[in-house]
Write a structure and sequence with these properties.
By secondary structure, this protein is an alpha+beta fold. The protein has one domain. About 40% of the residues lie in helices and about 35% in strands. The protein has four helices and five strands. The chain has a five-stranded antiparallel sheet with strand order 1-2-3-5-4. Strand 1 (about 35-40) and strand 2 (about 40-50) form a beta hairpin.
C-alpha cells in the first residue's frame, strides 16, 4: 500500500512536471514508503528521506480538492510526522515543490 501511494504521487508529479522535477523525485524519494498524518486541518501524506533530511508533503484527497493548502498547514503536517515518529527535528527550509506538494529540509537531534 505504501509503495502504491508513492507510485500515485510519483505518477501525478510526472504528468504535471518537467524532467528536472521527475529526476529530483526519483533521486530523493524512490522506494520510500508513504505515510499518513492527521492534523486539525486534515490528512497529509508524507514521504521521509531520513538520509538526506528531506520530507515530501502532499495534502490528502479532501484537502487537494480545495486547492493547494497554505505552507503553514503542510509545515504542521511535517511537525506532526516528527512527533508521530518520536524524533526531535527542526525544519530548516520549506517551499512549494509543485502545487499542491511541498518539500521541507530538516535536521534532527542525535
Amino acid at each position: 500500500m505504501k509503495n502504491r501511494n508513492f507510485g500515485i504521487i510519483f505518477g501525478l508529479c510526472l504528468s504535471l512536471s518537467g524532467c528536472m522535477t521527475v529526476d529530483h523525485l526519483h533521486r530523493d524519494y524512490a522506494g520510500l514508503g508513504t505515510n499518513e498524518v492527521s492534523t486539525p486541518k486534515g490528512a497529509f501524506y508524507i514521504v521521509d528521506n531520513m538520509k538526506t533530511g528531506k520530507l515530501f508533503v502532499e495534502p490528502g484527497f479532501g484537502l487537494s480538492l480545495k486547492g493547494t493548502p497554505p505552507i503553514p498547514w503542510a509545515r504542521e503536517a511535517a511537525l506532526a510526522w516528527f512527533q508521530k515518529t518520536g524524533r526531535t527535528c527542526t525544519i530548516r527550509e520549506g517551499y512549494l515543490f509543485q502545487a499542491p506538494h511541498y518539500e521541507f529540509l530538516y535536521s534532527c537531534a542525535k
